[in-house]
Specification:
alpha/beta, elongated, four-stranded mixed β-sheet, two-stranded parallel sheet, 35% helix
């Protein structure tokens, strides 16, 4: 909504594969949201001046899928167009809080959006580094109580709900002070690339 309102005659198109997310986006951007798979975008080559995939690549099944998504974003960009994406999402949530200390020994999740890997995939599709930035995820700081709830609903993929290890982390989190107080917000990383040509 803010992008569309930022400049007169700016056309913004949203894409999401999940029906619920596409419906939610449609309320913010009526008539401009398409339900589609980012690995096979339903747009012609060179159709867009800019493409943005925020908080997407960390969900990919592996490096090949990251490459497919980045390749599709590059394909639909015009020469000289800009691609912007988030990188290192999971690492951004580690803000050095007492919650992070408790969770530090949990089994690691696979990292699919490592900056170096995304940069390599971008280069393979003719995208040249154009810049980087960071932004704060306002209101996304974890509290111990919220982290326990996330553990119980399976948000931490390497700690399935009901697993004794997950229960152990929940017990340790429940012993932290200020159960409702959110710890610092995560700071996320962006990379931008320009399409050669």
């Amino acid at each position: 909504r803010r992008l569309a309102a930022a400049r007169e005659n700016l056309r913004v198109t949203g894409v999401d594969l999940a029906p619920a997310m596409a419906r939610q986006a449609s309320t913010r951007l009526p008539g401009a949201v398409v339900r589609a798979d980012s690995r096979r975008l339903p747009f012609r080559d060179g159709q867009f001046d800019a493409v943005c995939s925020v908080w997407l690549l960390h969900l990919a099944a592996g490096p090949a899928e990251v490459g497919s998504i980045v390749g599709e974003c590059a394909r639909v960009l015009r020469p000289g167009g800009i691609y912007v994406t988030t990188v290192d999402k999971a690492a951004s949530h580690n803000v050095g809080s007492d919650i992070d200390v408790v969770l530090s020994s949990r089994p690691p999740s696979p990292v699919r959006d490592a900056a170096a890997d995304v940069e390599s995939a971008a280069a393979a599709h003719g995208l040249l580094p154009a810049g980087q930035a960071r932004f704060t995820g306002h209101g996304q700081g974890r509290s111990p109580r919220r982290t326990i709830a996330d553990l119980r609903r399976g948000w931490f993929v390497t700690l399935p709900p009901g697993d004794p290890l997950a229960d152990g982390f929940a017990t340790r989190l429940a012993q932290l002070p200020d159960q409702e107080r959110p710890r610092p917000d995560p700071v996320f990383s962006l990379r931008s690339f320009r399409k050669a040509g």
